[in-house]
Amino acid sequence: MAISKQNWVLGQCLSLDEIDVGFQGRYAHKDKIKYKGEGDGFLLDSICDSGLLYATHFRHDPCPVVEKDASPLHNRCLYLVEQCKDAKWHVFFFDNLFTSKNFLDWLYKREALGAGVCRTSARGLPGCVIQDVVTKKADLEHAVGTVKVARSSDYKTIAASIYDAKPVHFMSTFHTSVHDIQKSRKIYDVNVGAVVDMPFTRLNIINDYNYDMNGVDLCDQLRNQYRCDGPWMRQRKWWWALFLSGVSKWLVVTHTFATRRFA
After folding, report:
1. Phi/psi at 143 (5° precision)
2. How many domains is the chain partitioned into structurally?
3. How many CB atoms lie within 10 A of CB 7?
């Protein structure tokens, strides 16, 4: 692993992710996990580059306290961020498990930027951008497409929300503005009987988040589809669960790298 890191040139955009290694047996450090399809097992915090696993930390392994006011989750993530010492001002994208105003400030102090979807409570999201869920159909027609934006007093952090099917909230130290960008997708037009380009607009922060999460979800899907243990194998020994999970991850990393490199 150390040799791999020494020869790995990280890209500018990285992602923080939570990995679940399924385990059905008994072990003191096994986590009870109800919110992931993998079920109970071991939780790992990780940094991914282009969907490929770069660094990871087991949650049961004691982590150095790098910020005394940070939660254990954010301390583990900051510890991982400090492993990326080859360049400054990497941009980390993450989901709403990680995003908070304090976490973005701690990243900035380490010369790193962050962006991600954000929960509305206890995360430092300003109240002026919070949009409530609308249930009435008449009100929903007016709410869809509503965009609210705010900037922190130190000009480092932008908070934004847009009402799509439901309100989506963001916080970022990477973006300096929030604006629409022109996009297009190919659709089949029954009137002309051919595939045509359909133009549409999307907020830049949503577009960056969708593309710069670096294929983490795609690699997760590959691991789930081509895992060597399969969902039918119930591992009773914790070392077998970790070993087979590691083999599956490195196979996906090798396959993904080879297809991108030699395509």
Report:
1. -80, -35
2. 1
3. 6
Single out the residue of 156, 159, 177 nearest to residue 168, CA to CA.
159
Q: What is the pLDDT of residues 59-113, one digit of tens each?
A: 767 778 888 888 888 998 998 898 887 778 999 999 888 999 999 999 999 999 9
Looking at residue 222, its amino acid is L
Q: Which of 165, 77, 162 is nearest to 118 (CA)?
A: 162
Token digits of residue 252: 């996906």
- What count of residues does the chain have? 263
pLDDT surpasses 60 at 261: yes
- Which pTM does this prediction carry? 0.82
- Residue 217's domain comprises 2-262
Cα torsion angle, 49, 11, 58, 113, sign:
negative
**pLDDT tier at 33 (50, 70, 90 boundaries)?**
low
Copy the structure tokens of residue 45.
């915090």
Question: Which of left, alpha, beta for 111 (phi over 0: left; psi -120 to 50: alpha)?
Answer: left
Q: Dump the DSSP string for 118-162.
A: --SSSS---GGG--PPP-SHHHHHHHTT-EEEEE-TTS--EEEEE
Look up residue 69 and give its two tokens: 């006011």
> Position 127: which residue type?
G
Q: What is the pLDDT of residues 155-186, one digit of tens each?
A: 899 999 999 889 999 999 999 999 999 999 99
Alpha-carbon distances, residue 138 vs 26, 141, 144, 148 (angstroms): 53, 6, 11, 20
